[in-house]
């Protein structure tokens, strides 16, 4: 516990801070409710201190009082893990021994204490779920940042390019496996990117765009990367002792059962919601997918049409300004529609009434992925597979967008679409891919790090100004920090600011990486340098994410996980689609490496489809082969898992059967019996029971007799040749 | 044990019979070897009786002498199962209790005794592997048929159409899970066939051939069937307590390790063969696949060409006889080449040096499947996708086959291929499918049941004749039955005849079913009545297989399994290919339901490929959807598995933490402390240790104090609105 004291020194040993907000409640109710809360916390053995929070809130500091209590909870959790097959070996029956053998990491401690606070009452926890039912005033429950560690961590990362597995261990020990898996994934992805970055750059220089060699190598690389990562996941799971942890499912509080049934075998009362009913509800996803595709598709296609009209048809004044109109429309409309659709998706997901948090998250991830797929890739798909091949056919119909430029046009001619002779802009596709590969990444980075920083600074300034003005007027709410004790003041100020930070959601960051991976598999053949841009971006991304966790977000509560979850399927799906889209792009535009030339007249449908057919099936076969090959290879994780299981079995067998269990019994105990006793026995036997079986089995009295008789038979029956041979 | 005695009455309680053949060994060596064998058997606690066998062989009868010995072996096996996660609950520590709770099935007994005889010496077994190393004289080890049961079983099956799960349990209890899984699969398949049989017949009557509706329904049906069976496998695995049994791997005796390494963690000595080296060796499969495809493909294509030449070009004499020439060639050549290729495949498989029996079998199954795929489906593929669409192009070049008919031709004109105006025979494809769906099934059935019967009868007659003639001459080898005791004579005669029977190999029967399933998914759209034929065939097949096991084969040694193994993948593969081939067939030949008309001129390549593309991807999506939907459904097996796991956890938690582990600790143990003692403590505390933490945590002494202070803060900080509200 000594190290624990040292590292947490700044935090006064606080395990968790609970913010209690009473702005919308009457005083009496708030007090009563607060008393219940404090009592519930005390009941599970937590020490409590209350302080003032900002804006009608209280900060409740809790820590575990007794080591026994904590150790017992840890032991219970470990036994549970063992029973669910996550730990190969049963934890030592003595709690203290068990903890000495395998000391508690910080993340484990935080996880256990969090479970103590939020876990179900029936299992002896406090059952406090923020903003839910009885605890609607509890706003959040969060641990405090360890600023000493954070500073060192960020400093280290600034100087090191490749994270070692020990660095990942460090993240896991601090922030839990879920966050660690994100960093491990991004790190693996970053390291793997070096190859396509180098190869892509060379092929860009040597082979130009739309090189089929680059396409094949890139697709192969994606397959290998995904299969490698799957393996890496398992390895890390073994290393961190979380393999199979998804088997422990926590019930969602929001789950509404339809009926309660008593299990006939176990007598357990089960709250069930019929799977068929959920399946019917899931069918609503189909109209939702259609709706989302239509809504986003129409917007994107319209803006796309307007853009082409303005940039390539329109020739009137203000062209250079008007050209930005569709981009503006997109920037305004797509996030709005996405927000609405996400809201609908959440409602749908709620309505599907999932029983466990994992299932809920997984279903939600799928829906979010569909939305992201449309918003991220549809524009490029439109350019590649609609604009370029069919541009000359479509452009004449674009005069419906005259509306957008009519007020500015000098004469009708400037708005007229060319009836013939229109040539598409061959650079458009490349420009678009470069936009998504470079510009969008930078914009994203800015949105993610700089904007929140400015926002926070502004907010602080605003608060200060407000307080000052209120102080001048004298009638304002009392300052939260007014009564702070001097030795606590600095600490409390820090806690108050941490309480206002956002909660870190690792799936947002993962989504970003997956979407980025999609550009690489789907479109990088257009501009092979894509991977270089991503490589640079991800170096920054990894570090900025670390900073984000340390500075801009509340310290995340550690959660366990044994994979990056359903995003893995998304990665596989993107590679698959990539094998189709890349083949199509190469066939359509591979014009001696010059890129699309706007003369797609000599494209043959059957040849395009045949290219796709082969590409896709080769992808599938390669995928299978790589998976098979990797599954045959040994890895440190698998070796460790095997060794652990072996040890458990060995120990158990030694305990149960003793070291000598394998010893053979002494042969021939019948030998000691004398001839006469045998005869006596046989006589008695034939009197006592004279079943045919007994007769049969008593003919030969011992194995020696059998051997002798056998030898006799061999002598008699052996073929004549053998006789001669002797 | 009473029932055991009754049912085995006829078999004199014999557990296993070992045949020892000494025809090729000198007498001295045979005797010495025999003594070793008998000693090894006695050493593991088996009672032994030796009798004469046919043709220079001995029959060694063994049974387990002591119940303790057997029970101990059973207990060890069950503990091992538990440690490998196959049994959810640890077997009762008392062996006898464990056996009373879960009595021994006949199959389990036979399996345990078999392991006692053949299992590795290091684990306390006899280590006798037939025809291997030291035991090259041991020809076979087999249990004896239970004729009473067999008779009843076959009688029951003759009257019952649908097997209930209890019937499958019966098979499992007698012949072990591996055989039971085959019957369970065939039974499920049979039951599922009723739908396509009914639907196929109606669609044949109403929609004609090549109906796209039939194609879609048939493909959907295949997907549902396979997914249903996967689930059924799991359910049966739970029911029979074998789920996950494939985790227990038995090392192959033939495995040759490259080096021995000592595991650094466990200290276990591991015999390893590098996985990469095996991968390289596996690459040899590629040239093998090419060779096999070429060899079989050339033969099949040649015969096919000759057949078309003779039946549709040649017009000379003997045409009606010559037409059978290619069929004869096929019948003679294909099995020969297949045998050679199977031999090569076995060598390859041996060379791959698999470590476990399961891995070896699985790799072999894959190779066999490839061979079967070519021989079974290539002829139809050739007709459908080469002859019909390109017939008119190819036929003019068929004069290379003039050779086959030249000796009989009256004049050159009879041999000349028409330079134009040739029309293909549109009925050829249908005829071929009907041949494979009906004729081949009947031929197969005859080959499988009637031919071996006749062979056996002939062999017996031949033996009798030989013995008679030898007896007349007087100089022959002595008759094996000459010295039999009268009360044993009948029994020994039966055992001698059983010793001569073949060993039952369930994978041959499974392969037959898989190949049949392939015709259904790949080609049944040509002739939708296919399923009706298969339905009838499989009713007979199930029964004839039962008869085969009981009469024509040695009783199989029970083996455990938790699935039908790699054949499952083959089924999935066939459905996948089916989605492609069916779509292509429908597009090519769907001529208003009239079938191919030999005018494929208006076939468009892109349309064909687009049809295939959509069909395949719809198949993949449907496959995923069905899998997802089924995985959400509850099933008896999964309920049982869940209940079992729940009981284990509950029991363990109750044992470890007691029934009251969930009880809450008494709140507020600080309350009893008086005010003065608190102050004293605080003073002393500040003397003893005055860290900031202590100060922080001692401000509020109990949860009541925290609650009170919190209430005060709420009173002070609450917003004005709330005050008005009161």
TrEMBL record, chains A, B:
Keywords: Membrane, Transmembrane, Transmembrane helix. GO terms for molecular function: chloride channel activity. GO terms for cellular component: cortical endoplasmic reticulum; membrane. Residues 171-640 form the Anoctamin transmembrane domain. It comes from the Eukaryota. Residues 13-138 form the Anoctamin alpha-beta plait domain. It is found in: Membrane. It is a multi-pass membrane protein. It holds the Pfam family Anoctamin_N. InterPro entries: Anoctamin (IPR007632), Anoctamin_N_fung (IPR049456), Anoctamin_TM (IPR049452). Its main location: membrane. Residues 674-694 are annotated as: Disordered. The chain crosses the membrane at residues 179-201, 207-229, 286-309, 321-341, 369-390, 517-536, 606-630. Signal peptide: none annotated. The keyword Transmembrane applies. The keyword Transmembrane helix applies. This is Anoctamin. It comes from Alectoria fallacina.
């Amino acid at each position: 516990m000594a190290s624990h004291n040292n590292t947490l020194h700044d935090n006064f040993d606080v395990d968790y801070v609970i913010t209690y907000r009473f702005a919308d409640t009457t005083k009496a109710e708030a007090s009563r409710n607060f008393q219940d809360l404090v009592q519930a916390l005390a009941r599970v053995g937590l020490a409590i201190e209350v302080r003032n929070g900002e804006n009608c809130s209280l900060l409740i500091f809790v820590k575990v009082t007794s080591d026994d209590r904590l150790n017992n909870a840890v032991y219970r959790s470990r036994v549970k893990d063992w029973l669910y097959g996550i730990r190969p070996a049963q934890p030592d029956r003595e709690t203290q021994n068990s903890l000495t053998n395998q000391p508690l990491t910080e993340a484990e401690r935080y996880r256990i204490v969090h479970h103590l606070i939020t876990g179900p009452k029936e299992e002896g926890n406090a059952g406090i779920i923020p903003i839910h039912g009885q605890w609607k005033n509890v706003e959040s429950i969060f641990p405090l940042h360890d600023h000493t560690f954070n500073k060192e961590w960020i400093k280290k990362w600034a100087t090191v390019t490749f994270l070692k597995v020990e660095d990942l261990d460090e993240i896991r020990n601090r922030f839990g496996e879920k966050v660690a898996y994100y960093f491990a994934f991004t790190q693996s992805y970053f390291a793997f990117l070096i190859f396509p970055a180098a190869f892509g750059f060379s092929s860009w220089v040597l082979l130009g765009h739309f090189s089929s060699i680059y396409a094949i190598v890139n697709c192969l690389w994606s397959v290998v990367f995904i299969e490698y990562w799957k393996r890496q996941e398992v390895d890390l799971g073994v290393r961190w002792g979380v393999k199979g942890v998804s088997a422990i499912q926590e019930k969602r509080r929001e789950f509404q059962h339809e009926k309660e049934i008593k299990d006939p075998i176990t007598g357990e009362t089960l709250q069930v919601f019929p799977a068929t009913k959920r399946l019917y509800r899931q069918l609503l996803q189909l109209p939702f997918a259609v709706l989302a595709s239509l809504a986003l598709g129409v917007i994107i296609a319209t803006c796309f049409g307007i853009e082409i009209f303005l940039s390539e048809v329109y020739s009137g004044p203000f062209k250079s300004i008007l050209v930005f109109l569709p981009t503006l429309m997109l920037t305004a409309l797509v996030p709005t529609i996405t927000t609405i659709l996400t809201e609908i998706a959440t409602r749908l997901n709620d309505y599907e009434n999932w029983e466990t948090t994992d299932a809920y998250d997984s279903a939600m991830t799928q829906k979010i992925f569909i939305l992201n797929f449309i918003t991220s890739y549809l524009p490029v798909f439109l350019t590649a597979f609609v604009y370029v091949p069919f541009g000359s056919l479509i452009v004449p119909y674009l005069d419906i967008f005259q509306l957008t430029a009519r007020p500015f046009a000098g004469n009708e001619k400037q708005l007229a679409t060319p009836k013939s002779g229109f040539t598409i802009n061959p650079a458009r596709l490349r420009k678009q891919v470069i936009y998504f590969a470079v510009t969008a990444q930078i914009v994203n980075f800015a949105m993610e790090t700089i904007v929140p920083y400015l926002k926070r600074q502004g907010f602080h300034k605003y608060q200060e100004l407000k307080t000052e003005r209120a102080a001048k007027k004298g009638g304002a709410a009392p300052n939260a920090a007014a009564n702070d004790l001097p030795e606590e003041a600095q600490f409390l100020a820090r806690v108050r600011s941490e309480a206002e930070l956002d909660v870190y959601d690792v799936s947002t960051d993962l989504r970003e990486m997956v979407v980025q991976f999609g550009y690489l598999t789907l479109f990088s053949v257009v501009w092979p340098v894509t991977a270089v841009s991503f490589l640079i971006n991800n170096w920054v991304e990894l570090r900025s994410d670390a900073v984000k966790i340390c500075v801009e977000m509340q310290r995340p509560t550690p959660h366990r996980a044994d994979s990056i979850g359903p995003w893995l399927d998304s990665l596989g799906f993107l590679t698959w689609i990539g094998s189709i889209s890349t083949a199509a792009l190469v066939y359509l535009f591979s014009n001696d490496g010059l890129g699309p030339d706007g003369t797609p007249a000599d494209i043959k449908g059957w040849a395009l489809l045949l290219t796709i057919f082969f590409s896709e099936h080769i992808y599938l076969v390669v995928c299978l082969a790589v998976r098979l090959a990797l599954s045959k290879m040994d890895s440190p994780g698998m070796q460790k898992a095997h060794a652990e299981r072996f040890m458990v079995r060995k120990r158990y067998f030694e305990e149960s059967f003793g070291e000598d269990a394998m010893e053979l019994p002494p042969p021939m105990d019948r030998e000691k019996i004398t001839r006469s006793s045998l005869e006596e026995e046989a006589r008695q036997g034939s009197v006592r029971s004279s079943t045919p079986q007994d007769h049969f089995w008593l003919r030969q009295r011992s194995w020696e007799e059998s051997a002798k008789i056998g030898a006799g038979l061999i002598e008699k029956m052996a073929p004549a040749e053998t006789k001669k041979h002797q």
